[in-house]
Specification:
Blueprint: H1 2-18, H2 23-30, H3 38-51, E1 55-57, E2 69-72, E3 81-88, E4 98-104, E5 111-117, E6 122-129, E7 150-156, E8 163-171, E9 174-183, E10 185-189, E11 198-205, E12 210-218, E13 223-231, E14 237-247, E15 250-260, E16 263-272, E17 275-277, E18 293-295, E19 316-321, E20 335-343, E21 346-356, E22 361-364, E23 373-378, E24 383-388, E25 402-410, E26 423-427, E27 431-437, H4 443-446, H5 450-456, E28 457-459
C-alpha cells in the first residue's frame, strides 16, 4: 500500500507538467489551499457569515500580491482595510461569479461592508497606485498625504487571452469604480515628467487590427483622460512592457508585441508635455514591411527591448537574415539582430549583432563585419562559428574563412573539456563562455582584438 502511494507522486507531477494548464492553475485542484493566518481566518469567517459556505478563494496569478486576502490602508482614515477575492456558487443568473468582498475594522473586529463583482473569471493581478496629486476636499489634517490610493484589479476571461481591468477608489466603506475596460497591457509611469504617476493603458481592436494607448490621471473627481494616440505595429497582443529612457531627458515605454505567425515587433511610447506620442516604425512604400519587426524560429528565440550596450538607454531589436541565409525558408534562416534607438522621432540603427537565444549571449558586430561576416551554428558541439562570407563557398566552414568561434560549456557538465587555445571570455550562473580566434587570409581585416571582443560580447 505504501508503494502505491509513493507511485502516485510522480504520476501527479507528470499530469501537472504535461497538461495544458499552468502549474498554478493545475495545483489549485490538486493541493489544499494555503493555511490561513489568524487575521485571515477571522476575515474568512466573516466572509462565510456574509455570503454563505459556497465560496472558493481566488488567488491573483501575477504581481506583488498573490494572496486572496489583501490588507492595506486604501482610504483617508488610519488603519488597514481588507478585501478578499472569491468565487460564489450561490449567485443569481447573470451575475459575475468572481467577487471582491470589502472589510473594515471600526471596533477592533472585522466586518463585511461591501461586495463587488469583478469583470472576469480569474484574478490576474491587483495593484495600488497614487495617480495624480491632489488634496481631498474633506481632509483638513495637515498630516494627511497628498493624493489617495487607487486600486487597479486586472482579470482574465475564460479564454485566458482577453483581459479586463477596473480602477477603484475606496471611501466611506464603499468602493467606487472610476474606470473599467478591456486592455492588452498597462503600466503605471511618469511619462510626462510632472513628478506624478499616470496610468497608461494599451488596447487592441482585433476586428480592425488596430491598437492605441491612453494615459489617465486622478484629478480628485475621477479618472481624467490626458491623452490618446494610435500605435503602429499591427499587434495581435502586447506581451511585455519595459520602462526605460531614450536619452537623459526622455522616459519611454517599450511595448513588445506579437504579430502572430512567429513575428514580433515593438512600439515606443513617450510624451510631448502631456501628449502621448508613438513614432511610426514602418518605412518604405510597403506598410507590411515593418522596420521594427523580428522573426522567431528554431534558431532565433523571442527577443525583447533591452539595453544591449549598457549605456543606460534602451534599444529596440529587429531582425534581418545574415549573409548566406536570405534565400532559405524562414524556419532555416539565421538572423542579424539590429538594435535601434529613437532620435528626433525616427528610428536610428545603433548596432548589428548575433543573438543566441539558446546560449543567452549577444555579439555586437564592428562596422567592418556588416554584410561580410555570417554565423554558422554547430549546436552538437555548443559552438557558434563566425566566418567571412563568400557566395561561392556559402555557409561551409573552412580554414580560410573561419574568423572565430564561441564555445559554451554548462557548469554542471563535469565531463566537458575545453580545447587548447580557447580563451575564457565570460560566465553566467549556469554557463561558461570561451572563444578561439583563427589566423587566416581574412584575419588581419576581420579578426577582433581582445579589447573589441571584451566590449562586444554581452551575456544576457
Amino acid at each position: 500500500m505504501k508503494t502505491k502511494k509513493l507511485l502516485l507522486v510522480p504520476l501527479i507531477l507528470m499530469c501537472i507538467l504535461f497538461s495544458g494548464c499552468s502549474m498554478s492553475a493545475s495545483t489549485e485542484n490538486l493541493l489544499a489551499p494555503p493555511k490561513l493566518s489568524g487575521e485571515q481566518n477571522e476575515i474568512y469567517q466573516e466572509l462565510i457569515n456574509s455570503v454563505g459556505k459556497g465560496v472558493k478563494l481566488k488567488y491573483p496569478k501575477s504581481g506583488e500580491y498573490r494572496s486572496a486576502f489583501v490588507l492595506k490602508n486604501i482610504d483617508d482614515e488610519p488603519g488597514d482595510e481588507a478585501f478578499v477575492f472569491y468565487e460564489s456558487k450561490d449567485i443569481r443568473s447573470g451575475e459575475s461569479a468572481l467577487r471582491m468582498k470589502f472589510f473594515d475594522k471600526p471596533n477592533g473586529k472585522w466586518e463585511a461592508v461591501f461586495d463587488l463583482a469583478c469583470p472576469g473569471n480569474e484574478v490576474d493581478s491587483v495593484t495600488f497606485a497614487q495617480l495624480g496629486a491632489f488634496t481631498p476636499k474633506d481632509t483638513k489634517s495637515a498630516d494627511t498625504e497628498l493624493g489617495s490610493v487607487n486600486i487597479i484589479v486586472s482579470c482574465t476571461l475564460l479564454n485566458q487571452t482577453d483581459k479586463m481591468f477596473m480602477v477603484l477608489k475606496y471611501k466611506d466603506k464603499k468602493p467606487t469604480e472610476l474606470l473599467s475596460s478591456s486592455y492588452s497591457c498597462m503600466q503605471i509611469a511618469d511619462l510626462n515628467k510632472d513628478e506624478q504617476n499616470e496610468l497608461v493603458i494599451v488596447s487592441v481592436n482585433k476586428e480592425l487590427n488596430t491598437s492605441s494607448a491612453s494615459m489617465y490621471t486622478d484629478n480628485g473627481s475621477g479618472l481624467e483622460l490626458l491623452s490618446n494616440t494610435p500605435l503602429y505595429g499591427g499587434a495581435v497582443d502586447y506581451i511585455r512592457v519595459s520602462e526605460g529612457k531614450l536619452d537623459e531627458n526622455t522616459p519611454a515605454l517599450f511595448l513588445d508585441y506579437s504579430k502572430g505567425g512567429g513575428q514580433s515587433g515593438t512600439d515606443v511610447l513617450y510624451c510631448y508635455g502631456s501628449r502621448l506620442f508613438c513614432p511610426d516604425s514602418v518605412i518604405g512604400s510597403n506598410p507590411a514591411a515593418g522596420m521594427i519587426s523580428r522573426q522567431v524560429n528554431n534558431y532565433t528565440a523571442e527577443i525583447y527591448s533591452f539595453d544591449i550596450d549598457g549605456d543606460g538607454f534602451m534599444e529596440i531589436p529587429s531582425t534581418t537574415p545574415l549573409p548566406g541565409y536570405e534565400t532559405l525558408t524562414k524556419p532555416e534562416q539565421l538572423y542579424t539582430v539590429q538594435w535601434y534607438t529613437v532620435s528626433s522621432d525616427n528610428f536610428t540603427l545603433e548596432h548589428n549583432s548575433y543573438f543566441s537565444g539558446k546560449f543567452r549571449f549577444a555579439l555586437l558586430f564592428p562596422n567592418r563585419w556588416t554584410g561580410v561576416v555570417t554565423a554558422v551554428p554547430d549546436l552538437a558541439n555548443n559552438d557558434i562559428i563566425f566566418i567571412s562570407y563568400n557566395p561561392e563557398v556559402g555557409l561551409t566552414v573552412t580554414e580560410d574563412n573561419e574568423i572565430m568561434r564561441i564555445h559554451t560549456v554548462e557548469k554542471s557538465d563535469t565531463s566537458a573539456t575545453v580545447a587548447d587555445g580557447m580563451q575564457k571570455i565570460g560566465e553566467s550562473d549556469e554557463l561558461l563562455f570561451y572563444c578561439v580566434k583563427k589566423n587566416n587570409s581574412d584575419g588581419d581585416m576581420l579578426s577582433l582584438t581582445d579589447s573589441e571582443l571584451k566590449d562586444s560580447f554581452v551575456i544576457l
